[in-house]
From TrEMBL:
Residue stretches spanning the membrane: 12-31
Annotated GO CC locations: membrane
Region forming the signal peptide: none
Organism from which the protein derives: Passalora fulva
Stated name of the protein: Uncharacterized protein
GO BP terms: N-acetylglucosamine metabolic process
Keywords for this protein: Membrane, Transmembrane, Transmembrane helix
Classification via Pfam families: Glyco_transf_17 (PF04724)
UniProt keyword Hydrolase present: no
GO MF annotation, one: beta-1,4-mannosylglycoprotein 4-beta-N-acetylglucosaminyltransferase activity
Length: 387
């Protein structure tokens, strides 16, 4: 073999080994990144104290404490505090709105709320607008608008997607010329009414730099905080950041469904593989970051409405079936196979506001104890017995 041939062979071998090494390194990096997505909101006393201290927006920020807080939870510090917006697609539960406002008002900067007079099953009226004075203590933090959402004819998901879309495109968009406008990098939280972030989670979102698609995984409960769904996390709500403009920000409905931003799908078709890769890369999960309480309502009417939204019309129409299932700690939702565990009151994991209102004023009892004859529902007699 000539010298030129031997040199060429060595170069081919070198190129082959370099390619193999690069592939192995790429697989290692991708595997490591994929296994580093999960973070857990700490309940360690020192971290819990820092989470509480920095959940509220204030100027007295000690960078060493914030840096330690972020590093402990696996994130880089953001560099400077930023605003947090809680985007709410309001349906009908005034109690849950009260709980949300009182739990998060000291921690988020603004609540962005859209409400439609027509639900996906009926014309229900503007419940929040009609009870506006009930929340007057929070008016300075609320951006609210009644919107026109046509009822979805296919399923409830379409209706909620449209309502969440309106929160962003009609309510938040109306603030861009005011002092309440979001700036690039500000945090947007997207969730249903019954998906409530923990105050400590706000500290992470405000001061640290999680990816643009961050899931705030919830501890999940059914009917009340006394019935815990074990063995899995509810992978909602989500958080993202405001982009350079409204157009360059992930829409709430796209964020929730894991879709690419609509502007990219329309304008940048050539770059879809790149954006799809970024979507995969720029995501994380914070475990134990929120509460999710399904069918946790104080009236049969509200449970029936939610069951209708889920398509379980047979169960929704029968009061006896609902009460019997609640008493028996059985799931009304067809096809569910979850482990349900009753929790003693002293071990309950619930928002502090709910516990205080129940202990001091006897309110929200249906979120703590469903054992009474009426299963805690306020629109049926306490002497009701399911038949």
């Amino acid at each position: 073999m000539t010298l030129l041939g031997r040199t060429h062979k060595r170069w081919r071998l070198c190129a082959y080994m370099t390619t193999i090494s690069a592939l192995v390194l790429a697989i290692f990096v991708l595997f490591r990144h994929d296994n580093s997505r999960q973070h857990v909101l700490s309940r360690r006393p020192d971290m819990a104290e820092l989470l509480a201290d920095y959940a509220e927006a204030h100027e007295d920020v000690k960078r060493d404490e914030v840096n330690a807080l972020c590093r402990f939870h696996g994130f880089r510090p953001y560099g400077q505090p930023r605003k947090v917006y809680d985007l709410i697609a309001f349906t009908s539960s005034l109690d849950w709105l009260e709980i949300r406002l009182n739990t998060l008002a000291a921690h988020v900067d603004y609540f962005v709320i859209a409400e439609s007079s027509i639900t996906n099953v009926s014309a229900g009226g503007l419940a929040l607008s009609q009870n506006w004075d009930r929340f007057r203590a929070f008016h300075d933090k609320i951006m609210y608008r009644a919107v026109n959402i046509s009822p979805a004819r296919v399923d409830a998901t379409d209706y909620m997607n449209n309502l969440q879309h309106a929160v962003f495109t009609e309510v938040l968009a109306s603030s861009v010329s005011t002092d309440k406008k979001p700036n690039p990098g500000d945090v947007l939280i997207v969730g249903d009414m019954h998906e409530l972030p923990r105050p400590g989670t706000i500290s992470i979102l405000r001061h640290c730099d999680p990816p643009s698609r961050t899931t705030l995984a919830s501890q999940s409960f059914l009917y009340s905080f006394a019935l815990h769904r074990t063995g899995f996390s509810w992978l909602y709500p989500q958080a993202t950041t405001f982009g350079s403009s409204l157009r360059n920000t992930i829409l709430p409905s796209d964020l929730r469904r894991g879709l690419l931003p609509w502007s990219l799908r329309v304008r940048d078709i050539v770059y879809l593989p790149y954006h799809a890769a970024r979507r995969w890369w720029d995501r994380a999960v914070i475990l134990d970051a929120a509460w999710n309480c399904s069918l946790c309502h104080g009236t049969i009417e509200e449970v029936q409405r939610e069951m209708q939204d889920l398509g379980a019309l047979d169960a929704a129409g029968n009061v006896s079936v609902i009460v019997d299932h609640v008493h028996a700690s059985q799931d009304l939702s067809a096809g569910e196979d979850r482990l349900l565990r009753l929790v003693e009151q002293k071990w309950m994991d619930l928002p502090e506001y709910v516990w205080e209102q129940w202990k001091e004023h006897g309110r929200f009892g249906y979120l703590v104890d469903r054992s009474g004859p009426g299963a805690g529902f306020g629109d049926i007699p306490e002497t009701f017995v399911g038949t």
